[in-house]
Design brief:
With about 70 residues, the protein is an alpha+beta fold. The protein has one domain: Alpha-Beta Plaits (2-Layer Sandwich), CATH 3.30.70.100. Helix content is about 35%, strand content about 35%. Strand 2 and strand 3 form a beta hairpin. Helix 1 packs across helix 2. The protein binds copper (II) ion. Copper (II) ion (CU) binds near residues 12, 13, 15 and 16.
Length: about 70
Amino acid sequence: MTQEIIKVEGMSCMHCQLRVKKAVEAVEGVQRADVNLQTKQVTVDYEEGKVNLEKIKEAIRETGYEPI
Ligand SMILES: [Cu+2]
């Protein structure tokens, strides 16, 4: 299992937090996503080989937020 932290702009409330969490966790190969609104960081646990960081960022982008 690999853990990465992605910085995401545009999240302002618990609704955003949940949307991002659900979107990331829906990506195949992702085991868990934790969104911290205060630091604007998404901590993702995923299986390398099944998914990569770019795919995870894309899922965030599709939800309407901006991964950095
Ligand atoms: Cu919101």
